[in-house]
Amino acid sequence: MSSGERHGRPVPPRAPGRYVPARGVYTEEARLRRLSWLRSVTGAALDSLHHTRLDAAALTGNIEGLVGTVEIPVGVAGPLLFHGTHVQGEVYAPMATTEGALVSSATRGALAVTMAGGVSTHALSQAMTRAPVFAFSRLAGAARFASAVVQHLGDLRTAVGQVSRHAVLVSVEPVVLGRTVHLRFRYTTGDASGQNMTTACTWHACQWILRQPYLVADGELESFLIEGNTSGDKKASAQAVAEGRGIRVAADCLLPAGIVERVLRTTPDELVGGYRHITAGAVHSGVLGSHANTANMVAAIFTATGQDIACVHESGSGQFVLERTPDGVYASMTLPGLALGTVGGGTHLPTQRELLAAMGCAGPGSAARLAEIIAGFALALDLSTVSAAVSGDFVGAHERLGRNRPPHRNGVPRRTVPPAAAERRTDGPATPAPREPGPAAVPHPAPGHDRAAPSPGEP
Predict the structure, then answer these.
(1) Basic residues: which segments have biased composition (predicted)?
(2) Which of 90, 243, 252, 308 is catalytic?
């Protein structure tokens, strides 16, 4: 068949100038050529894309058709004091976002938790899944295959080991749906998110399966797909919430009543009462898990650190819990599956690499550390968000910090928060309702940290 034919039919020639030029070429010259082409076909100036700090030659595994880069503001939330399995001491979190009030709210929650003694965190487990599907002619063939394939876990591990030194096949679980078998491969992947890694490993393991006549008899198998959509890849699902896909991590803290009143500007009873209402609403509307806005924290840190941003859809589910205690409030956050890594993907890009290093998330075990940091700050953010909703400060904070134009009074633009006070403000009202907060214990700094703990009078 000639190059001008497809399935025996003539193929019309490509219209000149219609297709992106220099495809597959990773040089600065090729990038500028594509940018010039895009200007010509759209009529847009695209001046902001002309310069980039990224080396086009280093992006071969990250993007195709490169024309430029997009800048996203990065703010810093914290400090938040950790007493975790993989992270101890005060940590600041980089948050890439364009949502005003988000960093301020996270910082307020972090202040409350730190003043109360800090947050405990623990990375519970890791599991990355890939789920190919085998379609047989009848149920009998599918059932026989499902029973037999699980007996060859050792052989499948050998096939996986020929592809990757980092992926470890933990289990293979067949799920029979009619005449099809969805074969759920579960891996640990070290400090990598492992989605591409496990895809390649699963493909080669399935090629071994297809070569075994005692597993796949002649005439029984009709088709095979590398992903049958039961892994939960980039999709929020009840299965992912229950079993986890990525790193499962939990965080908790105790907040004395005085800190709830002074920093979060509500009372323990009001805070827990409001939490019950939003939990009931989550159940009624079918939300996976129950939380205020964990996806905000996950998305902000994922973007800042070079994660696969589409995984926010599955990683943003969480279970936020508040309970009344005799002295205040118990709070916890469980994130069932953070699909993240500190190697691979976009983590090698200069800014993303520097921000990971700033959090101490480089080297062995750093993926679990990053997961614990995200869980701790997600807990802090939900505490602040629910408190703002309960106290009536939620809209005011967004009006003050989340608007694209300055507020006006009598037609004159003004700053609501003076520059000197802006860094010390929390998401509370300008003049909080009068209360008599009880004394709040101030934690001592973690060993090795010289920064003075915030005083009880700090807003």
Answers:
(1) 403-412
(2) 308
What pLDDT score does 219 carry? 84
3-state secondary structure of 413: strand
Selected catalytic residue, list 166, 204, 234, 235: 234
SS3 15: coil
CB of 329 closer than 8 Å to CB of 268 = yes
What's this model's pTM, rounded to 2 decimal places?
0.84
pLDDT value, residue 405: 57
Sequence-distant (6+) residues with CB within 8 A of 178 are 139, 142
Residue ranges of alpha helices (H) inside 338-393 are: 350-358, 366-391
Residue 453 phi, psi dihedral angles, 5° rounding: -70, 150
Q: Give pLDDT tens digits for 324-345.
A: 999 999 999 999 999 999 999 9
Active site residue 398: yes
Give the pair of three-digit tokens for residue 255. 């907040």
Give the mean pLDDT of 27-35: 97
Residue 86 is among the residues annotated as catalytic for this protein: no
Is 182 tagged catalytic?
no
- The pLDDT, as a whole number, for residue 129 is 95
